[in-house]
Amino acid sequence: MLEDYAQKRRFNRTPEPPPRDTQGGGDSLTFVVQKHAARRLHYDFRLELDGVLKSWSVPHGPSLDPETKRLAVMVEDHPLEYASYEGVIPKGEYGAGQVIVWDTGTYMAQADDRVILTDRTQAQVRLRDGLNKGKISFLLYGQKLKGSWTLVKMKSHDKDWLLIKHHDEFADPEYDILQDEHSVISGLSIEDLKAGHLPDPQESRVIDLEKIPGNRKTSFPSSVTPMLASLTGRPFSDPDWIFEPKLDGFRILASVRDGNITLLSRHQVDVTAHYPFLAAELKQQSGREMIIDGEIVALDSSGRPCFQCLQQYLKHSKQVGKAETSVAVIYYVFDLLYLDGYDLRDATLQQRRRLLEQTVKPTEHVRLVEQFEGDGQTIFDAAIANGLEGVIAKHKGSVYRSGERSRDWLKIKSALSDEFVIGGYTQGQGSRAHTFGALLLGYYDDGGRLVYAGHVGTGFDT
Questions:
Q1: DSSP one-letter string for 344-377
Q2: Please, are residues 245 and 383 in contact by the beta-carbon 8 Å criterion?
Q3: Which end of the chain is more exposed for a tag (fewer CB within 10 A), N or C?
């Protein structure tokens, strides 16, 4: 299948990878789009199938407008190793010019009725059949390209196809995705390569899961409890810390395993049935097995987090899995704890975040929590101005300590508050003799002991 590729290249003169006998691995199929400044600038669109990259040259690049059909000329198959190739093909060689990895990720095949084929073998059968019949549809999970696409063969010429974006939440007729000119691996542009700045393999933006320090090869965890943040008094700035908005919702750990989705509350209560749309969208993520941490939040009509709206959503669930509400319910994800055979909790927050961004692709109801660096006071003030409770500060080098309240994560709130256990109450006196006097509060210390915190006797009406 790679004979044409090999015949067109002299591998003692070009840095391109020679063909090898590889079959790929894992359940996910990979795709890559390489921006190539050869005799004419174009984009090479490649899909993994049967151990090679099926390839099309797209002269004008992909478009997010479903009404725009891009010519895609089928070219020779490329080896799987080509998916990470960046550099300069020397003058006088086939395809001479600069090459960057403009986008890469995983993809899944779709049947005609938009059914997603998650099984690798079944997906490849469908793709082979589609290539023969002249139409293939697929879901892209890239860093730039996402959602549903199709390639349709033209009748006028045997090699000519059309690359078309389907109508979905990732379609955007107003946005020119090609204005993002940089590589997702090295961060370089074609102009950078022309100026002599070559990619450094040691500075790749794509993380190799096996090489992450602190990860552990292990089976899928039977249970995971969330890491908790400690309360601190005031905003601060430190280059070793990042800041996330503090969201007012329900803390949820999501498990994705062989197409089965489980949403667990902080106290290990299964709440999957309350959020069927979240489960459906998590099924479309590229990770075969993963555990992610996040917060389910409801947004009011102005787009701000609204805890009462989330309570209203649950209250109006007339039957399991069919809640009716006018508010948007979003799962904001901020951490990745397990992925495809590896426990990542002992990896650094920075590594987990980078891998999270590569693995979890935003959908209508699943989104990544934004992270900020810089002046902690300014970030805090901006959060409060936007109707948030405050920010969560996280040390970049922190590991994930399940079940612990750590000083590596700090919550900074506009109103100082925390969660307490109501352990009892005192007898009311005087005008309150018919009710109670004060609530007795406690909290669990780092050793799991319930410690008395004080009493609250004001703020109650009749």
A1: -TTS-HHHHHHHHHHH----SSEEEPP-B-S-HH
A2: yes
A3: C
Running DSSP on this structure, what letter comes out for residue 208?
-
125 band by pLDDT with thresholds 50, 70 and 90: very high
**Looking at 109-113, 138-142, 143-147, 425-429, which range is the least confident one?**
109-113
Which run of H or of E encompasses 328? Answer: strand 328-339
Return the active site residues.
Answer: 246
Task: Determine the pLDDT at residue 210.
Answer: 76
Q: d(Cα 306, Cα 312) in Å, to the nearest integer? A: 10
pLDDT digits (tens, 9 = 90+) for 187-233: 899 999 999 998 876 666 666 677 788 889 999 998 899 999 998 88
Whole-prediction pTM: 0.57
Comparing C-alpha atoms, which of 169, 165, 199 is closest to residue 184? 199
Distance separating alpha carbons of residues 438 and 224, to the nearest angstrom: 36
Distance of CA 306 to the CA centre of its chain: 24
Q: What tokens does 35 get?
A: 């921006």
CA-nearest of 239, 228, 244 to 392 is 244
- Identify whether the C-beta of residue 374 lies closer than 8 Å to the C-beta of residue 237: yes
Alpha helices in 66-183 (DSSP H): 120-133
The Cα–Cα gap between 144 and 382 comes to 28
Q: Where are the beta strands (DSSP E) in 80-154?
A: 87-89, 97-110, 116-117, 135-142, 146-153
pLDDT in the model for residue 196 = 92
- Check: CB of residue 395 under 8 Å from CB of residue 401: no
8 A C-beta contact, residue 301 and residue 328:
no
pLDDT exceeds cutoff 70 at 319? no
Q: Contact 288/282 with Cβ under 8 angstroms? A: no
